[in-house]
Amino acid sequence: MKIKWLLSAILLSGMLLNVGAGNALETLGRQAILLDATTGTILFAKNPDERMTPSSMSKIMTIYKLFERLKDGGLSLTDTFSVSEKAWRKQGSKMFVAVNSRVKIEDLIRGIIVQSGNDATIVIAEGLSGSEGAFADELNETAKQLNMTNSNFVNASGWPDPEHETTARDLATLAVATIKNFPDLYHYYGEKTFTYNGIKQGNRNPAIYRNIGADGLKTGHTDAGGYGLTVSAIRKDRRLVLVINGLPTKKSRAVESERILDWGFREFNNYALFKAGETVIDAQIWMGEHGSVPLLIEKDLTLTLPRRVRRGMKVKVAMETPVPAPIKKGDVLATLKVELPGRPTLEIPLVSGADVGQLGVFSRLGAAVKYVLWGESD
């Protein structure tokens, strides 16, 4: 005989915040998204899926492709690429590479990240793919792999083009992928100055100068896109990523990015409920060689919650008990339910941590008699 069993416990207080719950915060930007890089929880969003001109923020994708080649061993930082006349003549922000010269990969990385060199992006595109058009095709393929579903790249630099567009959400996805996939190369985004051909230029990212934990990524500006910034900051092992675009001035870009990051760190925190492989509870077994089996959670469960909300979240385990044997390790036997005020309940499967064989026929008969007489199960 089975009975429905629920274990209820208030483990901690708070609630998850979804995209629509960020109404308490306003911004001058036309598009914005703020998320926690560990949990993926969106803390604030404004038109996050609206297609926009990314300007030089699209250089993050160009660097991503270059980092891929470095990571897989196809390139080294000391390799060189040649500078074509097309690259040398490219206007806008420049690294000032010399035509027909050869430039080290590491210098090109700094020329793109720190100096925002349009010329350097073309050197990379031609060096990796033969032409900027072929390189753009590779960027789009990588965007699909990263689930950047609303992006289209037609060049390597973010040079204005009506078909070159992305979204705040897609840029945030790209930023998180860059940080997680290239931990040994990401440090270039935090460099403040770079000198090439005797010309010293400063990083255009205002956040890395402001003692707010920022260590990347990239600014952008065109008449069509306005002023934008994709930025990441880390404080006490907690990392946030912000994308904001369509701001009216360079000053507003600096002020808004700092203000929104401060808000995210101040108002929210991460709370670890369970580690992967941790026993949540033991399940009683019916007619098994063992009387119980541990129920495990397969993945880390960490929630991003508002600091100020201290009541209302409950965690329950739901299952039918006792669970009949036999049981195999990894079988889903229960559900961990996280109830959040005003939000759909999160449901996470709990699995058996061990095999449990079934009792022999005479042992099962004895257990059944014992249960009928005394209501006990082993």
Write a brief caption for the model.
With 378 residues, this protein is of the alpha+beta class.
What does this 3D model show about the protein?
The chain has helices spanning 59-71, 85-89, 105-113, 118-129, 132-145, 168-181, 250-267, 361-374, and strands at 3-9, 31-36, 42-46, 80-82, 102-104, 193-196, 199-202, 214-222, 226-235, 238-247, 268-274, 279-286, 292-297, 301-306, 314-321, 323-324, 332-339, 346-352. It is built from 8 helices and 18 strands. 26% of the residues lie in helices and 30% in strands. β9 (226-235) and β10 (238-247) form a beta hairpin. It is of the alpha+beta class and 378 residues long. A 7-stranded mixed beta sheet has the order 1-15-17-18-13-12-16, with no helix packed on it. A 5-stranded antiparallel beta sheet has the order 3-2-10-9-8, with helices on both faces. A two-stranded antiparallel ribbon has the order 4-5.
Mean pLDDT, as a whole number? 89
The CATH architecture of the largest domain is 3-Layer(aba) Sandwich
CATH domain fold name of the largest domain: Beta-lactamase
- CATH class of the largest domain reads Alpha Beta
User: How many strand segments?
Assistant: 18
Structural class given helices, strands, pairing? alpha+beta
Order of helices and strands: EEEHEHEHHHHEEEEEHEEEEEEEEH
Domain module tally = 2
Main beta-sheet annotation: 7 strands, mixed
3D shape: elongated
Q: What is the fourth-level CATH superfamily of the largest domain?
A: DD-peptidase/beta-lactamase superfamily
Strand order of the largest sheet: 1-15-17-18-13-12-16
Strand content: 25-35%
Rounded to an integer in angstroms, the radius of gyration calculated over CA atoms is: 27 Å
Low-confidence runs (pLDDT<50, min 5 residues)?
1-23
The helix fraction, in percent, is 25-40%
Count the DSSP helices: 8
Distance between the termini: 13 Å
